[in-house]
Amino acid sequence: MSLPKLLSLFILFSVSVNLAIAQEEKLDKSNFVCSYTAGVINEKSICSMLGFRTRPEAQKAVERIVSRSGLKQNFYVMECPNIDNCFAAARNGERLIVYDASFMRRVNSITNTDWGAMSILAHEIGHHLQGHTLKEGGSDPNRELEADEFSGFVMYQMGSSLKEAQSAIWKMTTDYDTGSHPPRRKRMIAIKRGYENAKGMYPRLNSDPEPEIEREVPKTEPLVRKPELVKVPAKPRNVITVKTGCIEGNCSQGYGVAVNRKTLEKYAGNWKNGRRVGYGIEYYADNRKKYEGDFSGSDFHGYGTYYFKDGSKYVGKFKQGLMHDDKATFYYQNGDRLYIRYVNGKKEGKGRVIYYGGVQGTIFFENDIER
């Protein structure tokens, strides 16, 4: 059974419990609570229980995460409805991972991958294994970043991609610094750091190279009309023919459509002396829009919109192929907007961000790095 399926079983089935009624009063006091998001935890909703058993599928999923650390499991896992969160807690000596099954299902739905909820579980387990729950208090930025880094470390070992490891942070949080939780960008960096550390230690563990076979595609430069055939990597039994070069219209003077031989990216727009000039649209190899706007000398130049593969986009001016505008707008995938100056393709100075929920803030950049 695959790990994502294990997690699906984990979040779809409730944890069955046996109450230890005689010890119930020991749970009245919480000395540590650390939630995944900055949402308020309603501790009255936390089930007052000590002794319980869990389904084998759920325990196996937890064990698979813990085993990546080389440490022993030092906590219990239990489900409590209506808390709309997942968090680590220590209550009178009992260490717990508490989760709301509906919340975990919603995470997977929003992130469109089972790895979203798995990364949250790994994050909360990280709080326990790194000793955060031994200390008084709750969430703070340093603890959250350490747990994020642990999550990225184990997610690589378990087989997820970096994008999948970061999916919950990207979709479920914002770039607003709450005081207890750092901005989303810093958390994304922490996950990547853990992921890359694991990759450095286990370079072959998560590798899945695509086999190479031969297929036929035209061997032409973008403007050559008579193609030759060249062998390139492909998946088995998937031999196709791709037409490149100028495939429609006039790619010297006027309007034409051309496909790049090396990248298989397509351009549809105006040409002058065999160069892209004026208005045009460039597409990724999978036919998703990459850029729409002005060209000069085949470069992005003038006003346009650049669409990143992750769903974010830049709207503003370009100069010789680089983003360059004193008043550019960057749209994040989740709907947040950043108004910032771009210099030679990099964010510089003070920017104003409007988060999806309407809250506004200020961010400072130096050489494209948030300070």
Automatic annotation (TrEMBL):
Obligatory cofactor(s): Zn(2+)
Example GO biological process: proteolysis
Signal peptide annotation: 1-22
InterPro entries: MORN, Peptidase_M48
Residue ranges occupied by any Peptidase M48 domain in the UniProt entry: 56-135
Keyword Acetylation: no
Keywords, in A-Z order: Hydrolase, Metal-binding, Metalloprotease, Protease, Repeat, Signal, Zinc
Free-text cofactor note: Binds 1 zinc ion per subunit.
GO molecular function terms listed in the Swiss-Prot or TrEMBL record: metal ion binding; metalloendopeptidase activity
Family: Belongs to the peptidase M48 family.
Protein's name according to its UniProt entry: Peptidase M48 domain-containing protein
